[in-house]
Write a structure and sequence with these properties.
Strand order of the largest sheet: 13-16-15-14-17-18
Strand content: 25-35%
Radius of gyration: 23 Å
Distance between the termini: 21 Å
Order of helices and strands: EHEHEHHEHHEEEHEHHEEEEEEEEEE
CATH architecture of the largest domain: 3-Layer(aba) Sandwich
Number of helices: 9
CATH superfamily of the largest domain: HUPs
Number of domains: 3
Largest sheet: 6 strands, antiparallel, barrel
CATH class of the largest domain: Alpha Beta
CATH topology of the largest domain: Rossmann fold
Structural class: alpha+beta
Number of strands: 18
Helix content: 10-25%
Length: about 400
């Protein structure tokens, strides 16, 4: 398998550069549209491309407008006016054009509304998945075509390789920063137009590159929160945007009523804190199930969170073709989770996943992503955990 050209693949060469990185000696330059958040990763991705002779166009996406009282908090998250100016400053440094494009309407529809509706259904969404799937790549690729650009680039820690006409997605080299989990929705056409320049490096190396180049964001902290909820208070954000509430009982595994609640949107599978119940045991209690139809929230002990099987929908296979037989793979059920050995049964856009050993807190609304070593095979959305006794068709496993 041949590696797709990765701009900046050799750090020693890159570190030879200093001062202004404008490269005017290259003829027939390729053009790259780079999604720039104002952070270290996307800034270095743009600088690597400029170094390698690309005509770089930086694009910062305006995704939402924050109330005045949140502006200070946004400066500690992302998407602030300070971030926009940081992106512009980097573009000036590397001799690139910069555009600030308004995507507020699309972000509201495809990310914020989706986020709230999922919580209304008792699910726990991952907004970065929706943002990548419906916004960053789809819209940026379209915009790149209008700009006569050859490729789109981002600062994700993941890698793309190609063999002939087939493209593959691999985890980033730095396991602590790997972002391949949120990229499983990419298809072959998108991968063919995408470059991920920093996936071959660790975060420390990327910061070293930024410092060597004198980029003003070299020591800028990473954003930690969901960009549109900078204070981390999900309930305060969701409450005024609800279109319905589903109040109900809180029960234990045996159905004993332990309390009540005002809406399932305030809970997620695996949650321990802020449970309005009377716990008469000396063991901590966790949310183990949320029933959107009845509004019932079930709680149990840590061992009652363990499950071995799940059902996933809207499954995307990176190759474009689902496996025809059950396949032994590793599966990850949350962004910062660990891969666990499993067998995957594909059925069209759906899949059943059975883990070799029980895993903790299978959470509807999150993604399950399949790996073969560091190769991303595909992934889908978790719909529900499945009973341990359910039968699976007897097929040969590959």
């Amino acid at each position: 398998m041949e590696s797709k050209p990765h701009p900046g693949a050799l750090i020693p060469v890159f570190l030879c550069y200093s001062g202004n990185m404008v490269n005017n000696g290259s003829k027939n330059k390729k053009r790259a549209v780079v999604a720039m958040s104002g952070g270290v990763d996307s800034s270095v991705a743009a600088a690597m491309l400029a170094r390698d002779g690309y005509d770089v166009i930086g694009v910062t996406m305006r995704l939402f407008s924050a109330p005045n009282e949140q502006v200070a908090r946004l400066n500690k998250s992302c998407c602030s006016l300070e971030d926009v100016e940081d992106a512009r400053s980097v573009c000036r440094k590397i001799g690139a054009k910069h555009y600030f494009l308004n995507f507020e309407e699309e972000f509201q529809k495809h990310v914020v509304d989706y986020f709230v509706r999922e919580y209304e259904r008792g699910r726990t969404p991952h907004p970065c998945l929706a943002c990548n799937d419906r916004l960053k790549f789809e819209f940026l690729i379209k915009r790149a075509e209008l700009m006569d650009a050859d490729v789109v680039a981002t600062g994700h820690y993941a890698r793309i390789v190609n063999e002939g006409t087939e493209y593959s997605l691999l985890a980033g080299v730095d396991p602590l920063k790997d972002q391949s989990y949120v990229l499983y929705t990419l298809n072959q056409d998108q991968l063919s137009k995408l470059i991920l320049p920093i996936g071959d490096f660790s975060k420390d190396q990327i910061r070293d590159v930024a410092r060597d180049l004198g980029l003003p964001i070299a020591d800028k902290p990473d954003s930690q929160d969901i960009c549109f909820i900078p204070d981390g208070d999900y309930n305060r954000f969701i409450e005024p945007r609800l279109t319905k509430r589903s109040p109900g009982e809180i029960v234990d595994i045996e159905g004993n009523i332990l309390g009540s609640h005002e809406g399932i949107h305030g809970f997620t599978v695996g949650q321990r804190k802020r449970l309005p119940i009377q716990n008469n045991t000396n063991r901590p209690m966790y949310v183990t199930d949320i029933n959107a139809d009845s509004g019932r929230v079930t709680v149990g002990t840590a061992d009652q969170l363990m499950r071995s099987r799940l059902f996933a929908s809207r499954v995307n296979w990176i190759s474009g073709e689902p496996p025809v037989k059950p396949r032994k793979l590793d599966a990850r059920i949350r962004y910062n989770g660990k891969n666990a050995a499993a067998t995957v049964w594909a059925n069209g856009l759906d899949a059943v996943i059975e883990f070799d050993e029980p895993v903790r807190a299978i959470t509807p609304g999150q993604a399950v992503v399949f790996y073969d070593d560091d190769l991303v095979v595909g992934g889908g959305l978790i719909e529900t955990s499945l009973p341990e006794s359910a039968d699976v068709a007897d097929q040969s496993v590959v």
